[in-house]
Structures are given as C-alpha cells and as structure tokens.
Amino acid sequence: MTFKSVYSLPISLFFSVLHIGCCILPLFSAAAGTLPYFNIFTRYKSIFTVIQLLLLVYLFTVLAKYYMGKKSFHNQTERIVMHLSLVIVVVGLFIGYFEPFKSENQRIAEQQFAFFKNHRRLEITFLNEYDPNRLEQEVRAISGVKPGRVTAEPTSVVLTYRSDQTTRKVILEHLESKGYKVQEKQ
Q: How much is the pTM?
C-alpha cells in the first residue's frame, strides 16, 4: 500500500501542474480581450488545448477503469479530486472552444469579418442599350443582391451581393436571360 501511495504522488503532482497549465492559463487567455497584459497567453492557446485534451483522456481513462472495477482510489478524497478535475477540464475546453468571455470589440470584429467574407462587389458593363430604372429593378429582384447597393450608371451597373446566397455567374446569367448583353468589368 505504501508503494502505491508513493507512486501516485509524482503522478498527481505532474497532472496537477498540467491542470494548472491547461485550465487556469486558458482562463487568463479568455480574459485577454479585456486585460492587455494577458495577450501573451492567446498565442499559446493551441498548446493549452492539446494539454487539456491529453488530461481529459487521462482522467476519463482513470475514471472509466474505476467504474469498471479495474482500479481503486486510496480514499474518498482522491476519487472526488479526479471527478472535480474532469469537470474543470471539460469546462476549460468549453470556455476555450466557445469563448464566452469575448469583449465587445472582439464580437464587433467577428461581425465585420463575417460581413466582408459574405459580401462581394460586382461591376457589370452593358454592350447594348437599356433602361436604367427597369434594369435596377431587375437586378434588385435577384436573390442575394443587396437592394440598397445597386447603382446604375450610363454604361454599367455596380452592385453588392451576398456570396453565400448567389454568385457572379448566376447574376450574369440572369441578366443575359432578360436580353442584356453583359460583360463583367475587370
């Protein structure tokens, strides 16, 4: 029994250090958006995540062996600590993945990135005569085209569209099917 206790001490110490490295430091890195001196931790987020995953596998394996009757703990405290460690690792992974502690600036930046990622600008030159008012109405009717972002000029139309709803090809084909001779301006 003494050997088993001596053997578990360095292992517990090692995993406690891993636990500090993978659970507490990611919480600091989650606070990095609001506290500038924690920004250094965000660079190492992937390392913390790997350590957390390794610790999760270890704790899950130990607890699975315990519940299958292949392993026993020295006392009740050791069993409770293993369960608490598992909960803390799962919460740390949850926080690292979903990042619920984002600052307002981080949320705004993500929204702006999504906006720029999904919106494209297209300038179309017409090779034949057309009625600008009728053309604007037809372009605004295309699914995915931003109605407020269509501008008809004497020989061309400039529009903004959502790339997740339509494509350049679809817009050009739609206008060609309406009888316009179009060319994408380079």
A: 0.48
